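Work Package 3 (structural annotation) set out to generate three-dimensional models for the target panel prioritized at the project kickoff. During this period the team completed the workflow that converts sequence records into discrete structure tokens, so that structures can be stored uniformly alongside our sequence database. As a representative example, we reproduce one entry of 101 residues exactly as it appears in the project archive.
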Amino acid sequence: MTEAMKYRRLRREYGPEIALIGGIDSTALLRGSSAVRRAVEEIVPPLLSQGRYLPCLDDRPRDNTPLRCTPSTGRSSPRSPSAGDASRETVPGQGRRAPAG
């Protein structure tokens, strides 16, 4: 059973009184932008339209999650730049590098 199915079942069982948070498949981040789009489109619109829903990932992003997807291919770019790449800076508190800008 997918997270989207679990969330729809909870909403059906408890009605609009239950507030829901999460449910977006965090592993979609590993599969590229089209997988992220599918994961969001599967769960967010129906729950958001009913109210009392905060869209976010179902879990935290893992260490092997790329920081961004390349728009042209939808595939993940490398997780971190080479040590000599000064165009990116470290994300505070995480030791990861973030895109410049």
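Residues 33-50 form the longest helix (18 residues).
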